[in-house]
Hints:
The chain is α/β, with parallel strands linked by helices.
Amino acid sequence: xxxxIYKNNKLFCEDVALETIAKKxxxxxxxxxxxxxxxxxxxxxxxxxxxxxxxxxxxxxxxxLSVLKLLSKLGAGFDIVSQGELYRVLKAGGNPQKVVFxxxxxxxxxxxYALQKNILCFNVESDQExxxxxxxxxxxxxxAPVSIRVNPDIDPKTHPYISTGLKENKFGIPIxxxxxxxxxxxxxxxxxxxxxxxxxxxxxxxxxxxxxxxxELKKVILDLKQKGIHIRHLNIGGGLGIPYSKEVPPSPxxxxxxxxxxxxxxxxxxxxxxxxxxxxxxxxxxxxVLYTKKTTSKNFIIVDAAMNDLIRPTLxxxxxxxxxxxxxxxxxxxxxxxxxxxxxxxxxxxxxxxxHSHAGDFLAILSAGAYGFSMSSNYNSRPRVAEVLVNxxxxxxxxxxxxxxxxxRGENL
Length: 413
Ligand code: LLP
């Protein structure tokens, strides 16, 4: 459920007409709904309120400072994968004691930065990483809090590029080797094992793979207990899918209820790292029709947004609904919605039935709040677009559109 709705045939974000934003801020522009973000985050909090827990928003999905600040104020922790993401979280007022650091390739510098900021936990993905973290922590006279990310070899049944829990994937430590690694604790004097985690994939539409991995992790926790190793938290990662089109994924409520059921006889804090379910349907990409073009084989709508602004259709063949900002025509035609970039892969939709559009019309590309702006680039020397946060009747530009000067910042002749 989100707050992008038609009122008298005009598309609104909460109580602000998208046309107003398009005219004042220009296009392309990402527009986020504060009410939707809040509602999605609270859905997690509500189910978990009677269980020791921490919801760590996955910053890679959307790292805009205003989005992070809002979530932080609602009580969120954060899942980060780089020094840059931690820097953003801190700038947004996030509490480092609620930050978990994931990723297979943390550098020494990143480890030191995160240790100095006293983050909650490092999700460690290899024995070499553990050894290096131990060294870095020792030098800083710190103890590094660690969770081992295990790879349970479970098929999340999603797009191969966003599957992460299969044995052929680069992520985590094979589940069969996890116990042995925890038992080597004495070799790592500057490490404190506090948790276990996994993240098997993204845009998952069925709960079974997630529940299966929870059951596998539970077995490891029980084995650890038997060996006298007590950890404090279980982190189930993120990965729940959202409806982009006609999919009907389980709700966060259903998902978490089932997870809690699996854990009912285990006294352990539950962490999760949702990204897409919080922000995906809380954002749209607002774009303007530049031209329409009819060739012998196709109808094209050429818009001012492109694959550098939203790469998901090109990269994952992802479907994003496209709605007119003003509903005028009922008649529809099959079109390819494409951007100005010089690649045939630059499309936002293919062979889509859309109402007739004309140059100057505005369109909203839906479900673009997650992995939209955060994956955008300057390809074709296109300045990155503006971001707007709507709150009820008001809105603010929470990231200015880049300028031509921004494009060449740091370059020398
Ligand atoms: N935790 C870890 C360790 C992750 O790697 C990810 C996402 C998440 C949490 C958040 O997952 P979510 O709840 O958002 O599914 N760019 C792709 C998605 C890549 C996901 C990478 N990892 C896309 O646009 O679909």
